[in-house]
Amino acid sequence: MLGFPQATLARSPWPRRRVGPVFGRGGMVAAAHPLVAETGLEVLRRGGNAVDAAVAAGLTAAVVMPEMCGLGGDLFALVHAHGQAPAAFMGSGVAPRSATLAQMRAAGTDGRMPYRGPLAVSVPGMVDAYDALLARFGSRSFAELAQPAISQAEDGYALSVIGSWSIANARDLIEQFPATAAVFLPNGEVPPPGAILKQSGLARTLKTLAAEGPSAFYRGAIAREIGDFMAGIGGALSASDLADHATEVAAPLETTYRGHTVYQTCLPSQGLILLEALNIIEQADPQRLARGDAAAIHLMAEAIKLAYADRIAYARDPAFGDTPLDLLLSKPWAAERFAQIDPDQASEETSPGPLNDGDTTYLCVADGARMMVSLIQSVSSNFGSGVVAGDTGVLLNNRAGRGFTLEDGHPNVFAPGKKTLHTLNCWMLADPQGRMTMVGGTPGGDGQPQWNLQMLVNLIDAGMDVQAVADAPRWTVWPGTDPLDRPNPYDLRLETRFGDPALEGLEALGHRLVRQGGWGTACAAQLIARNPETGVLVGGSDPRAEGLALGY
After folding, report:
1. How far apart are CA 461 and CA 468, in angstroms?
2. How confident is residue 273, by pLDDT bands cut at 50, 70 and 90?
3. Could you give the dihedral angle defined by the CA atoms of residues 42, 43, 46 and 50, in that order, rounded to the nearest 10 degrees?
4. 494 near 513, Cβ under 8 Å?
């Protein structure tokens, strides 16, 4: 078709900067897909609040971004309603209770968990998290907010360039499971950009949830369908595992950075990594970090390595033991860890400090009544486990397969009924006067806390606007915390837009560089800031993704 992109077998590099940030006052949504942002903005225009808009947008994302998120995935969020304390929502589930460590070792390879397939699935937390968000802060019903997603699933939507590329890239996985292939490979072929993709099974499930409420996913016919299907293909997830799931709601984790308060999601989220890393680099001169040169990148990369080491050594599902969060997020601990950074040499190994006693989409919303929402949801890896649960149309996550280790005695070793530590995290920022002024986040597995760190340094230390922050070049320390990636020597993966002086300087410091092109990272940052005096909103959206910020 004249003017349409051809079948896409390689992701476009998107080598361009947005013209500038987007302004609004009545409300704003920033998301990684145009239909997701449009859905949220329409809810705001019709009088819904930021939570209503976030839920509607998230449900649309579950349909139009199936490689990233879906009803079979997890969700973490932060919400701040004006005049109230912020709240953190942790919507992830446990490993199946009938599964055993011996079973996982037998099904895995090279001493690692089965990464894909029916044994990689944990209890999905996303649907119940929507219910919990609406129960606490919503002003519209789930049934009303689900209508755009139902239409997108039942009538179909035009597949984007990235959507087509994602299916092509995951074709080998999709073809392993007939129910999955029936949805995403119609007629056995990758649908090209612009093709209409319909998901009739998912539409039926969404209609059931709209009629009966989200609890039907966990204690109704949908739960039984999922459990029966999984039993038929050798999975361990059962209807009884779904039945007692509940979203955890708590006060967020927090720290201060240059007088600002940064809020993060709680365990089993890895939000503590960002907060510890911020505490460590706060010891440095802000002007030194603002330069963004080799010395600044080196310092932040070494801080991230230390925070990762502490997370791997000490963090766990709270139901299975304590994590020393008060110590790990304290300023004295950060000062000790900062003192261990060699300013002239990259570390090859990082040890945890001594104690004295992965694929996703992110969106954010702000409304005219000063409510702000920071929300991230995921099926873990691209297309999760690869398993669509039969006629339900629900693509199931691979969070258990990706997150747990099989190492005896490890805080994150697999156990039935246990939650794995989770890469999903998102943040909020309050100014020194305590006024909530910003929300932000990005997908990207172990890249998330690293890119969030870079965003906050660019915002606070370098004084960039939200769109400049979204456009800025990115770096990533690899490996992070994913058991599949460890152990391996450290790489520092950078976009070449940092320039030759920075890249050469980092090599001189001993970093093993992997150059990723000008826009080569998988970051898809979305940010919204509010002027606390005027209420004016400003949004930025990452040009590496295909989304946008919309405001009115």
Report:
1. 13
2. very high
3. -130
4. yes
User: Active-site positions?
Assistant: 360
CB-based contacts of 121, cutoff 8 Å, min separation 6: 72, 96, 230, 235, 236, 237, 384, 385, 387, 396, 397, 398, 399, 400, 401
Residue type, 530: R
Tokens (6 digits) for 358: 């992965």
Rounded to whole angstroms, the Cα distance separating 281 from 266 reads 21
Report the distance separating Cα 365 and Cα 59, nearest Å. 14
3-state secondary structure of 29: strand
What is Dmax (Cα atoms) for the chain? 68
Whether pTM exceeds 0.90:
yes
Plot region of 302 (φ>0 → left; ψ -120 to 50 → alpha; else → beta): alpha
pLDDT of residue 486: 79
DSSP-assigned beta bridge partners for residue 541: 526
Find the mean pLDDT for residues 116-126: 97
Please state the separation of Cα 471 from the chain's center in Å: 19
Helix (H) or strand (E) holding 360: strand 360-367
| pLDDT score of 349 | 75
Alpha helices in 485-541 (DSSP H): 500-508
Q: Across-strand partners of 372?
A: 80, 366
Neighbours of 357 (CB within 10 A): 5
DSSP annotation of 372 reads E
Structure tokens at 23: 């302004």
What's the average model confidence in pLDDT over 125-154? Answer: 98
